């Protein structure tokens, strides 16, 4: 039995070459709440920003067999061993089987044919077996990194971005903009409103950033816009340091998490721990938080830790309102496992994160905005405009 490890959100560097294998269309499992499509652009397990050069690799639609041949029951080749290692690892640690209505034993048996067939090897393991096995999970935090550092994600439907940096930056006051590789600050409406954009919650990318100083860059303003529409995720503890600039509440849970436990010694069941709270924590909260109105801009490119960030404002920042579109719906806290060849790595989700305000899992639901705003990209940033209208209202 693999020992469960509660990880810090994994932040890792990968090759610039990344691939995603297409999953054939299947009926969506039933789920509560609004579904915002998962983006096709590869986001490195919610830990780094998306790679605009990511390539979609089409694959043939795999047929899942009802029963596997006897030769597949026990691993023989290295690819077979890695296949069953992936299956067993997720069988012991993956928390979403029941929520996603996945029959994991049947899926494992059926998809094994791709590594058990005569002549099958490493390529079939990556392109066919993993596509068949992992694709139905449709999980941004489940992936395989091959021997060359290439990231494979499976079964992720498309999603539309709802931001355009040129349109947004065109609304910022002349001479007010301060920019780094990962942050942009400025003012709007002649210095009346501050603007803060952070494009990642990667601890590596934001090392040494003082979020109090970042917010202070906008000066003495009546209100602030926080633009999270392009944030690909990272570490929620880093995200809390920005949220903590706008609230004194360090203890109210914004979400709850659960992980796999084995309560009944039945290998066919998937018990979860009792819910445990996520809070900002005293270390993240500013001594003198900003007291004005705060508008938060959301969209489908807000992923993983960014979705936790959105939840923080929903519960812990009373004078805030969010605008745009529902976030990606991907929140699994990945952990890494080295496979049989000692060169291939599996990443798997380890936690179910449930929103404190709605009780819904973030996975496949996302965090909806308070006000949905259609973004056309036709010469206007309608999402930012709607936020400014609210900030100027009484």
Notable features of this structure?
394 residues, 7-stranded mixed sheet, 2-enoyl-CoA Hydratase, Chain A, domain 1, elongated, 16 strands, 2 domains, 6-stranded mixed sheet, alpha/beta
Summarize the helices and strands and which ones pair or pack.
Blueprint: E1 18-21, E2 55-57, H1 78-93, H2 104-111, H3 113-116, H4 122-134, E3 143-145, E4 151-154, H5 165-169, E5 178-179, E6 183-188, E7 193-198, H6 211-216, E8 223-227, H7 236-243, E9 255-258, E10 276-278, E11 293-298, H8 305-316, E12 320-324, E13 334-338, E14 345-349, E15 352-355, E16 371-372, H9 382-392
Parallel strand pairs: 1-2, 1-4, 7-8, 8-11, 11-12, 12-16
Antiparallel strand pairs: 3-4, 3-14, 5-6, 6-7, 9-10, 9-15, 13-14
Notes on the protein architecture:
The protein is α/β, with parallel strands linked by helices and 394 residues long. It has two domains: 18-154, no CATH class; 165-332 and 350-392, 2-enoyl-CoA Hydratase, Chain A, domain 1. 21% of the residues lie in helices and 17% in strands. It has helices at residues 78-93, 104-111, 113-116, 122-134, 165-169, 211-216, 236-243, 305-316, 382-392, and strands spanning 18-21, 55-57, 143-145, 151-154, 178-179, 183-188, 193-198, 223-227, 255-258, 276-278, 293-298, 320-324, 334-338, 345-349, 352-355, 371-372. Strands 5-6-7-8-11-12-16 form a seven-stranded mixed sheet, sandwiched between helices. The model is unreliable at 1-44 and 46-71 (pLDDT under 50).
């Amino acid at each position: 039995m693999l020992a469960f490890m509660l990880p810090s959100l994994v932040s890792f560097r990968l090759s610039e070459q990344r691939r995603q294998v297409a999953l054939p269309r299947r009926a969506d499992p039933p789920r509560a709440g609004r579904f915002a499509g998962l983006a096709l652009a590869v986001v490195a397990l919610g830990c780094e920003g998306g790679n605009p050069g990511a390539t979609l690799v089409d694959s043939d639609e795999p047929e899942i067999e009802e029963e596997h041949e006897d030769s597949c029951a026990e691993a023989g080749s290295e690819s077979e061993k890695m296949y069953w290692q992936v299956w067993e690892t997720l069988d012991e640690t993956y928390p979403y089987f029941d929520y996603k209505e996945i029959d994991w034993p049947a899926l494992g048996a059926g998809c094994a044919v791709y590594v058990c067939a005569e002549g099958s090897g490493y390529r079939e393991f990556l392109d066919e077996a993993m596509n068949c096995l992992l694709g139905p999970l449709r999980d941004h935090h489940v992936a395989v990194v091959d021997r060359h550092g290439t990231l494979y994600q499976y079964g992720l439907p498309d999603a539309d971005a709802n931001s355009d940096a040129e349109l947004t930056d065109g609304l910022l006051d002349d001479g007010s903009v301060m920019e780094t590789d990962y942050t942009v600050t400025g003012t709007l409406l002649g210095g009346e409103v501050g603007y803060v954009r952070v494009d990642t919650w990667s601890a590596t990318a934001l090392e040494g950033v003082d979020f109090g100083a970042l917010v202070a860059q906008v000066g003495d303003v009546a209100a602030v816009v926080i633009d999270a529409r392009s944030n690909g995720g990272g570490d929620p503890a880093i995200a809390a340091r920005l949220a903590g600039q706008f609230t004194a509440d360090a203890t109210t849970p914004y979400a709850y998490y659960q992980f796999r436990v084995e309560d009944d010694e039945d290998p066919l069941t998937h018990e979860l721990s009792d819910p445990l709270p996520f809070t900002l924590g005293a270390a993240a909260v500013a001594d003198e938080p900003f007291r004005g109105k705060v508008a938060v801009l959301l969209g489908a490119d807000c992923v993983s830790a960014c979705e936790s960030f959105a939840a923080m404002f929903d519960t812990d920042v009373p004078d805030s309102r969010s605008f745009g579109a529902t976030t990606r719906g991907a929140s699994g806290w990945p952990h890494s496992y080295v496979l049989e060849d000692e060169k291939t790595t599996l990443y798997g989700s380890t936690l179910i994160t449930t929103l404190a305000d709605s009780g819904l899992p973030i996975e496949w639901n996302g965090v909806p905005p308070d006000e949905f705003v259609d973004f056309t990209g036709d010469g206007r940033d309608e999402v930012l405009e709607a936020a400014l209208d609210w900030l100027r209202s009484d």
